């Protein structure tokens, strides 16, 4: 299952779990050796329901995501 922005935009992240991996074999040679990140988020929606969301990202996508999280953190720290 892949999560959409609508599913997380009004939600609170309760827990996160991630792991990195490297593609060891594939029917496509160009894919072998590529790195990826699996991210699992537990989010609580406005009505108290907890939902599990799964993402898979390439390493560049992960670094972009991390950069956005750092920007959000800085913005929140500035406001408080």
UniProtKB/TrEMBL annotation:
Domain COMM: start-end pairs: 12-80
Descriptive protein name: COMM domain-containing protein
Biological process per Gene Ontology, one example term: tumor necrosis factor-mediated signaling pathway
GO molecular function, one term: NF-kappaB binding
UniProt xrefs under InterPro entries: COMM, COMMD4/6/7/8
């Amino acid at each position: 299952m892949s999560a959409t922005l609508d599913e997380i935009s009004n939600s609170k992240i309760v827990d996160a779990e991630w792991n990195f991996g490297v593609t060891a074999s594939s029917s496509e040679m160009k894919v072998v050796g590529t790195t990826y990140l699996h991210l699992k988020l537990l989010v609580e929606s406005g009505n108290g329901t907890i939902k599990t969301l799964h993402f898979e990202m390439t390493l560049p996508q992960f670094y972009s995501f991390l950069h956005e999280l750092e920007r959000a953190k800085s913005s929140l720290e500035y406001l408080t």
